[in-house]
Amino acid sequence: MKKVYDVKVKLLSPMHINGGVSADGKRITVKSDNKPYIPATLFKGLVRNNFEMLINTYRNEKCNGKESAEKPCRCMTCTLFGKAGFQKSRIIFDNLESNQELKTDIRTNVSVNRYLRKANDGALVFSEVVSNFDSNGNNVVFTGQITAYYPVGQNEEYEKFLKAAIQNINCIGLGKSRGLGFVDDIEVEEA
User: Fold this and answer.
1) For residue 101, what are the contacts with CB-CB under 8 A and spacing of at least 6?
2) Which pLDDT score, from 0 to 100, does residue 9 have?
3) pLDDT digits (tens, 9 = 90+) for 80-104
4) What is the pTM of this model?
5) Long-range contacts, 160-163 (Cβ 8 Å, 24+)
6) Nearest 5°: phi and psi at 6?
7) Which of these, 71, 125, 173, 184, has the minimum number of CB atoms within 10 Å of its CB?
């Protein structure tokens, strides 16, 4: 059974989704047509991770075939999201885009050597972030669609877990420890 959902993500804090490094060494945010967006692959990964945790918690269903591409897996997560090999995904995500006038800022922090657990000398890092307010002072909202093809007769159970997995997302992107990427309750409505 096919269902299409409209998704709305409202930013509570500035957001950085790494799109590479510019010529001047600044980490830039991912953009399409010079406009920041939330990539579908990033969002799908967050939803899949939450979906799998919910299934493991409430149904006590562990994925047996995730590592093996040769044999199909019948768990709910692999059935809906697919897996390596020839088990295709039954869910399609669009990039989440905003039709607002977005502002970007530059954040500075110190580069840290994770192995030595100390700051690297003379290594400032500059990151471009998307402001959580547009040019009119309104919270930035990203919107997109998700199309799901549920197995026949099981759509209600899959839909319940899918909506919960989406609504449990509270951070998107990098820099959560620096207060970046926090989002409000995500709205999911059938289109």
Assistant:
1) 134, 135, 136
2) 96
3) 998 877 788 999 999 999 999 999 9
4) 0.89
5) 161/51, 161/54, 161/55, 161/58, 161/76, 162/47, 162/51, 162/80, 162/91, 163/188
6) -95, 135
7) 71
